[in-house]
Structure formats: C-alpha cells, structure tokens
Design a protein that fits this description.
Length: 311
C-alpha cells in the first residue's frame, strides 16, 4: 500500500498524518514501525524539524521520540526511549539558558536527586541538553492535574524537597545570583514583550507589567537566602513509594529567598486542589507549613507569586 504525505495540507511531524496512515492500514500503532530513508537522520528531521548534531545522531540511533507538551519550559522537550533507558532532550535557539541548566545539574549531581547530564552541545545556532530520566512520578497526575493521593503524603514529600534544597551547602556554588539580577531579567522580559497579561492570575490587580515591576522594585522583602528550584510546582517534583525521588526542570534554579519556592508551591497546591472547597485547600496548605516548621507569611507569598507573573 502506498500513501503519500505531500498530498495532504499538513506536514510531518503533525500526528494527524500518522493517525490517518494507521486508520488507512487498519493497524494499531503498537504493530507499526516508523522507518525513514536514513536511520540516523530522519527521526530528528521529521520530529524536531531540524537535523541533530552528529554526536547526538550517533548517540540516539534506534531510539523512539515523543514531544512533551506539558510544563512551562521555554525549550522544546522530547522523551527519547530505548529498551535500555529513557532520556530527555531539551533544545532551543542560542543564546540559551540550557548552558546554565547544564552547570546547575552538574553542581547538584552529588547534592540532590536530579537528572545526570549525558550530553551538551551547540550547533547551527541551537543548544542541546540531553539528560537522564529522574525516577518516579510527578506530584500531580496528567491530564486532570489532581495532586497524587494520599494528599497528606504528597505534601510531606513537597516539604521534604523544600527543606532539602534549603539545606544545601553553597560554599562551592558556581553562579552569581541576586535579587537585582532577577529584577533585571524581569525588566528584560517586559521590554522584549514576553509578559502576557492574559496568563496572569485573576487577582493580579496591576494595569501593566511595568506597573507591577515598579511595585515589586519598591517593595523588596527581607530575604532568607538559600538554594531554590525557581519553579517549585507539583509537576517538577518527583515522588516514588511515598517519598521524594527527584527534581526536574531546573532551568530557573539558583540562590534566592526561600519564600520564592514556598510561594510557588502554595500557588501550585491551590491550583491542583482547586476542586476542593476553599477551607479544605487552606488546611492542606497549612499542613505544608506545619511540615516545614515555618509560619505562613502572606506578604512574602504574594510578593513572589507576583514576581513570577513577569516570567
């Protein structure tokens, strides 16, 4: 049977092409192999729309590919699987934050449960970061976004992760981080038109990103500096067997106020428990503070949730 993709208005890697081919052949996907005219090059050209650097072509020969569309990473993310292992590839145009993420993962390798760096390279104005899989499951399920049950156990894992990151020794930390640097990044995002007010929380009552930036600049809180994840939400925290198993998506990590991670964790909890009554949601977030041994500070929670609106 011959079926010619160029006769259709959409092109590879649009999944509709493959779904139509399966329907026409009357076969399930599990019984079908995809094979291009070049085993080392076609997969990446068809799936990514680009040609991988030679080093990655050779390393990933024979792997199956799937793009990951969940999460808030600015990079394109792919799950790459073989019978022996599962890897993840991030790629984005240069200049890229993946250089920093690579350095962060290498620094954290002996300090926290994170992915190991398998390969980093730059070619044709793109950066590529290939990492191992972090074991476990996310703290929230996909696609319904509910927190993994039992809730109390998952909240304990979230607290354990926060306390672990807060406890890291920073004497060998290789980067220069500061509130001033974070605010400079926020201002750059505003000037480059990267802040979308349509994505803001409903209770973010500022007329413009610049107005929000000015308020943040004038209301800087006292900081309790430690290592922070930078996007400490439920999909980025992995658990296994009721215990913390790892952290993913560390591109925004660095030294900052511990309340930055706590605030984003509280916001994520409220989102993933949005099907519950407000009082019950509040009780679960209070449980997080109990596990942390920290009193709730509403002003700091609000400040860092608002700061995140500019990223």
């Amino acid at each position: 049977m011959m079926w010619i993709s160029c006769e259709y208005v959409f092109r590879k890697p649009n999944p509709l092409l493959f779904e139509l081919a399966l329907k026409k052949a009357g076969l399930p996907a599990s019984d079908v192999w995809f094979c291009g005219d070049n085993m080392t090059a076609r997969i990446d050209e068809d799936v990514l729309g680009i040609t991988l650097p030679k080093a990655l072509q050779n390393l990933l020969q024979g792997y199956s590919w799937r793009r990951i569309n969940s999460g808030m990473s600015q990079a394109e993310v792919y799950r790459i699987h073989s019978p022996e292992q599962t890897l993840y590839l991030k790629t984005e145009p240069l200049p890229s934050n993946l250089t920093r993420e690579r350095g962060m993962l290498e620094w954290l390798a002996t300090k926290a449960p994170v992915a190991s760096v398998k390969q980093y390279c730059e070619a044709d104005d793109r950066a590529y970061l290939l990492v191992s899989e972090v074991p476990g499951i996310m703290c929230c399920s996909i696609p319904d976004d509910d927190m993994v049950k039992p809730y109390e156990q998952t909240i304990r894992c979230l607290a354990d992760g926060l306390l672990l990151l807060q406890s890291l020794d920073l004497s060998s930390y290789p980067f220069q981080d500061s509130w001033e640097r974070k605010m400079a990044e926020a201002l750059s995002n505003i000037e480059d038109g990267l802040v979308d007010m349509e994505d803001w929380d409903d209770d973010t009552d500022f007329a413009s990103p610049r107005e929000l930036y000015n308020w943040l600049y004038l209301n800087r809180p006292a900081e309790e500096l430690c290592f922070t994840h930078g996007d400490y939400c439920l999909p980025n925290i992995m658990i296994s067997g009721g215990t913390l198993s790892g952290f993913i998506d560390l591109g925004g990590s660095g030294v900052a106020d511990k309340w930055q991670d706590i605030a984003l964790c509280v916001r994520s909890l409220n989102y993933n428990l949005r099907h519950l009554a407000p009082q019950l949601r509040h009780e679960y977030t209070e449980l997080l503070f109990a596990y942390l041994g920290t009193k709730r500070e509403e002003e700091k929670l609000r400040y860092y949730i608002l700061l995140d609106e500019l990223f």
